[in-house]
Design goal:
329 residues; alpha/beta
């Protein structure tokens, strides 16, 4: 049953990165809310702030050079940004977990896969060594890595890319987290493995009733897995809605252009639409809308006034002065 209270909520989160006299604005005041038992897709171009959002939630933002200028990340009534590192460790892995984009970078090459799972469940769940080993075997079977214990006794370098990703998923879900972040978990995999991983994530989310933040730059993948979708551009959420509403009735020009520029079977043999111009320089602080220089609908108001994220219809929010307007392509 869906709860009225979100599992996790981000409020007006602003993050900068500094180097000498230069300051880059990674997040410019984002607001996101994640419901229980829902997969929420976060989509946008490279450099838009997707991974910075996830590392803020996990408390893994490198400081310096990063600095959280303002905002809150609320979980279970607590602001995660106000917790000490020792307090955050009790949440990270146990209540909030993450599947990283490149598992080879995050699996410890010196320890067998089984040991890495066992360490996690013993630390957070207080299991005995024997119980933790049984839990590791169950998890590896659950993610499709067999019952025979071969992967349990394998080092990361002995596994294929798809197997490494499944092993990382097993570690991430080992303590039954309430909130799971999947940061582009299929990027380095071929199409067949991508589909397998997407199906696995949907199955696990349903079994464990987790709230999932699924990060991707690929709208096709987001359409396959997500229940709700938020679109991020230059560190701000520009549109958010249930998946069906967003794909059938996108309101922001950036969302529409992302869809037009995404390949699919219906466009085979046709030239894809491109988004003109360049992503806003992170060191710039425009007075108006960040997307205005690239927007086919931009008018004087767009350069002078930054649009707020407001409700267009129930459950569908958009940050655009001329939301829903069309233009000739």
């Amino acid at each position: 049953m869906e709860t009225a209270v979100p599992v996790l909520r981000i409020e007006d989160l602003k993050v900068t990165f500094s180097h000498g006299q230069l300051k880059a604005f990674a997040l410019r005041g984002i607001n996101l809310s994640f419901k229980r038992d829902e997969i929420h897709g976060l989509v946008g171009e490279s450099g838009s702030g997707k991974t910075v959002t996830s590392t803020c939630i996990m408390g893994l933002l490198p400081s310096p050079p990063a600095r959280i200028e303002s905002g809150r990340i609320l979980y279970d009534g607590k602001d995660l940004l106000q917790l000490s590192e020792a307090e955050m460790r009790t949440y990270r892995g146990r209540k909030i977990a993450m599947i990283f984009q490149e598992p080879a970078k995050y699996l410890n090459p010196a320890f067998k896969i089984g040991e890495q799972i066992i360490e996690m469940v013993r630390l957070h769940l207080g299991m005995s060594r024997q119980a933790a080993e049984e839990r590791a075997k169950e998890l590896l079977h659950l993610v499709g890595l067999g019952k025979d214990g071969r992967v349990l006794d394998s080092f990361p370098h002995e596994l294929s890319g798809g197997m490494k990703q499944r092993a990382m998923i097993a570690i991430a879900i080992s303590c039954n987290p309430d909130f799971l972040i999947a940061d582009e978990p299929t990027t380095a995999l071929d199409v067949t493995l991508q589909l397998q991983i997407l199906r696995l994530l949907k199955k696990l989310q349903s079994l464990q009733r987790m709230s999932v933040l699924f990060i991707s730059h690929d709208l096709g993948i987001v359409y396959e897995i997500a229940d709700a979708v938020s679109v991020i551009y230059a560190g701000k959420i520009v549109e958010s809605a249930k998946k069906e509403n967003l794909f059938k009735n996108s309101l922001h020009p950036y969302t529409k252009l992302l869809m037009l520029s995404s390949p699919n079977a219906k466009k085979r043999g046709k030239r894809l639409t491109t988004i003109p111009g360049q992503v806003l320089d992170a060191t710039e602080t425009p007075r108006g809308c960040s997307f205005a220089p690239r927007c086919p609908l931009a008018r004087d108001r767009c350069y002078a006034e930054d649009p707020e994220l407001t409700a267009y219809t129930e459950g569908h929010t958009v940050a655009c002065h001329f939301a829903g307007e069309t233009w000739k392509i």
